[in-house]
Write a structure and sequence with these properties.
three-stranded antiparallel beta sheet, four-stranded parallel beta sheet, alpha/beta, about 35% helix, single chain
């Protein structure tokens, strides 16, 4: 593999992906400056030039569960008793109505006006087909006329609205660019600065370094595919893909893509990514979605040494309360089948990377599935008999090991004053906390160093010696769920269960508009 690169690409880091790349937490994309690509850009010494969309109005899109719980805590106290329900419903609906108004009719409905293309191009809820076909123009057509819904009170078409900030919209011709098309445009920004180029797309911060004449992007990260299976645990329903799986209008009725359908779409995506002028491309494997605490295993393991529980249901439903006739659930066999499909997704991704390397491209695969498996608390850590031969616990950074309690993959809980459990998953039970995004960033930093990417100090731009470590102290300070989770997230998860059952918060916020919701 040739590593005789010339000069330095203008765009040191570009990311294509979904909610995990956008920085989604607790049912909303909000702090995009704390997404894992933004964390990597900080460690590169390039954060001042890393462009990402902003969604900070009203707590972000589609509904910030952390802000909602803090609103209820402030006005209804730490404990929600049955006589508080009318007041809590009033407060929650007022908050949701404010968010809906902001994004559908207020300042939030205006798309970005800059002509500079973002470096973080991710959009929450998107799967492989979305990345291939959706552009700002397509998303505008999919967004219906806004209406003030007094019953649902949830932002309509939140993913499409988010895309109008993530993808280019100006000049008008840029509105036809997909995620991959926008990355390809960044990859074309090679060679010397041309007359008339603005600061937004020139070699910012790289004075004294000649631009790469062959590559406009130094490192491209592609992290897609989770949404080709994630809906199975969000909806607690396994609907295997069939006709129309590759159609934007039809695919919403499926929750898990058959491996052959995933492989067909992946081939198209890999062909398009191969046309992007990037020095290094890092693909991230699809995590096993059944590990996410949004679907909690009940009634003990199915049998000694099994990875799976007999049933998976909502995390606020205890073992003694679970009723298979009444409560939504997946069976252990369904969970096993979803994981087996994801394993085949990752086999197809590994083959795509191998083929690209044989063709002379500097492509890599990060085993994010294995990373999450090594962090899995109930599946492996607490059950030695279920551990496969390759398994070992993931060594958390010392800054996280110093926390009390040490963060784990359980649902995040508070004792009313401080975090009492969890810490790696945010309040939606699907997406990482800030420190967990830092873990993903650290793994990607390791791959980038293997590829020869130079990391520099934030000020002065001096090369950093190995090992390059993510500043977890910075992330701990900025992680509100680690420092001060809402006091009403108690040991029984009553408040989140109440919010979901009374307001359908998780369903509406995490379905991202699938199935017409």
């Amino acid at each position: 593999m040739s590593t005789s690169w010339r000069g330095e690409p203008r765009n040191r880091l570009v990311a294509i992906g979904d909610s995990l790349t956008e920085g989604f937490q607790s049912c909303a994309v909000f702090r995009t400056d704390l997404s894992y690509p933004a964390i990597i850009a900080h460690e590169l010494g390039w954060s001042a030039h890393f462009r990402h969309p902003s969604y900070e109005g009203c707590g972000g899109l589609p509904l910030n569960l952390e802000m909602l719980l803090r609103e209820l805590e402030e006005h209804c106290g730490k404990d929600l008793d049955w006589w508080d329900t009318p007041a809590a419903l009033f407060r929650a609906r007022r908050f949701m109505d404010k968010v809906e108004d902001y994004w559908e009719r207020g300042a939030g409905c205006a798309p970005a006006t800059t002509t500079a293309v973002n470096h973080n191009l991710a959009v929450f809820g998107w799967d492989l087909r979305d990345a291939l076909d959706k552009s700002a123009d397509v998303c505008r057509k999919m967004i219906g006329a806004p209406r003030d819904d007094l019953v649902r009170q949830m932002v309509g078409n939140p993913g499409e609205r988010a895309a109008l900030r993530a993808l280019p919209t100006r000049p008008p011709a840029a509105g036809a660019l997909t995620q991959v098309g926008a990355a390809r445009l960044l990859g074309e920004q090679t060679g010397e600065r041309r007359h008339g180029e603005g600061a937004g797309d020139a070699r910012e911060g790289q004075e004294g370094r000649d631009p790469d004449p062959d590559h406009g992007i130094e490192t491209l990260i592609v992290f897609l595919g989770a949404n080709n299976a994630l809906s199975s645990v969000i909806e607690l329903d396994v609907a295997w893909s069939g006709p129309g799986y590759d159609d934007l209008r039809e695919k919403g009725k499926y929750t898990v893509w058959r491996p052959e359908h995933f492989a067909a779409e992946l081939r198209q995506l890999a062909d398009e990514v191969g046309q992007i002028r990037a020095r290094h491309v890092i693909w991230c494997a699809v995590p096993h979605v059944t590990i996410a605490p949004i679907a909690r295993g009940v009634h003990g393991k199915a049998e000694p040494g099994s990875r799976y529980f007999p049933y998976y249901t909502r995390p606020w439903i205890g073992d003694s309360d679970f009723d298979v006739r009444r409560d939504p659930h997946l069976t252990g066999e369904q969970a096993r089948a979803v994981d087996a499909a994801i394993d085949q997704y990752n086999d197809a991704m590994a083959e795509a990377v191998r083929a690209a390397r044989r063709a002379g491209r500097d492509w890599y695969l990060l085993d994010t599935a294995g990373l999450l498996d090594r962090l899995a608390c109930r599946r492996y850590f607490e059950d030695e008999a279920a551990r496969p031969d390759w398994w070992s616990p993931y060594p958390l950074p010392r800054e996280l090991r110093a926390l009390d309690p040490v963060p784990n993959s359980r649902f995040l809980l508070s004792d009313g004053e401080r975090r009492s459990d969890g810490g790696l998953f945010s309040l939606d039970g699907v997406h990482p906390t800030t420190v967990a995004y830092g873990i993903l960033a650290q793994e990607l930093v390791g791959v980038m160093r293997t590829a020869g990417v130079e990391f520099r100090t934030p000020y002065g731009g001096e090369p950093r010696p190995d090992p390059v470590r993510v500043d977890f102290q910075r992330l701990v300070r900025r992680d509100t769920l680690i420092n001060r989770p809402p006091a009403n997230v108690t040991s029984g998860l009553e408040i989140i269960g109440w919010a979901d059952e009374a307001l359908d918060v998780l369903g509406r916020a995490l379905w991202f508009g699938r199935r017409g919701k």
